[in-house]
Amino acid sequence: MGSEADLGSTGSVVGYMRRLRERAVRLWKGAFQLQRRSGKIGVFLICTAVAGGLWYLSKLNHEYTVDVWLPIGLVNNPPGKLLVGERHREIQLRVSGHGYTLLKVKRFRTELSLDLRSLWPYFTYDTGGMATFRGQQLSALINRQLPSGIQLDQLLTDSLRFQFSEQMSRRVPVESHLRYSVDELSMQTGPVRLNPDSVTVSGPRATLLNIGSLPTEEVDVGLLRSTYEGVVALRHPNDVDVMPEQVRVTVPTAQYTEKVLTVPVVLEGLPDSLVATLLPASVKLTCRVPIAYYDSLTSSSMRLSVRYSSVELNIPLRVEVQQQPSWVQQVDFDPKSVSVFVERRP
């Protein structure tokens, strides 16, 4: 290996390269003599570079044996299985070929490909979902994918091991991780809405069983004065597929105004045999309401009540809000409690 006789049909190329070397040597000697006589070192350096380039080209025509690491791309999962971990590995080979071909392989790192689905019958398995692909079958597959002019002499990586998991799908809810603040003259009129509010995830069973929900990306949308709507991507593990991968987020927001109502207080839990009088019978209620809903809010929209207790007849009862629209905020009322006077029905 490495001799000119081994090159066969490339003999004419070898003869041509031999003549190039001889001319390069003569050129270098002449340039050296010239620079000694005239001191023109620039001409000497140029000729030296040309001679070196010709020598390098001639060396590339020789045949060599080298050890290389080449990347392997893994494609197509086996039926009902999912590969756990990275889909890119490296494998070490001992290959032979002409210098220019080997240089191209090492410089551009030709990627090989393994189809896991078609190779699945040739794997050997052990407990824990580990599968091993041995070098004998691997050598034949790799040799077919090497560039023309490269010969596989030895597979230095004797086997490849993979971790597989059972594949499954399930539906999980989505959580909003949107960051925002509301302007002091505006108010959020309802909870954050997600559409869809749940997505389908597919992947390794062990991974999916640990997913309770999927969060959105942490996007800061700034100060809100009106309703925000946008599309946000979901965060998920690399080995999990999500459908859809984005959701629409709505933050209902509107400018507000203040409204004052007189709302009656309802007594709850009073036995049928009794009649009660509340003092006062109604309270003054103040709240914030979106400007667009101002006219929609009436005293009947609110429900305030106290609960009857025979034990606390002589103690004023605390008023509580039992019902209010979702877009009403910062409810306050006065007084906070009322007195109850009870008598039996005639």
How do the strands and helices of this protein lay out in sequence?
Blueprint: H1 11-38, H2 41-60, E1 63-75, E2 81-84, E3 88-98, H3 99-108, E4 112-115, H4 116-119, E5 124-125, E6 130-134, H5 135-145, E7 151-155, E8 159-175, E9 179-182, E10 186-188, E11 193-195, E12 198-204, H6 205-208, E13 214-215, E14 220-224, E15 228-233, E16 241-243, E17 246-251, E18 253-268, E19 274-279, E20 282-290, E21 303-307, E22 317-318, E23 320-323, E24 329-334, E25 337-344
Parallel strand pairs: 1-4, 8-13, 9-14, 18-21
Antiparallel strand pairs: 1-3, 2-8, 3-7, 5-6, 6-8, 8-12, 10-18, 11-17, 12-16, 15-17, 18-20, 19-25, 20-24, 21-23, 22-25
Helix pairs in contact: 1-2
Protein name: YbbR-like domain-containing protein
InterPro entries: c-di-AMP_regulator, YbbR
Organism: Candidatus [Bacteroides] periocalifornicus
Describe the structure.
With 346 residues, the protein is α+β, with helices and mostly antiparallel strands. The protein is built from 6 helices and 25 strands. The strands form 6 sheets. Strands 2, 5, 6, 8, 12, 13 and 16 form a 7-stranded mixed β-sheet that branches. Strands 10, 18, 20, 21, 23 and 24 form a 6-stranded mixed β-sheet that branches. Strands 4-1-3-7 form a 4-stranded mixed β-sheet. Helix 1 runs antiparallel to helix 2 (41-60).
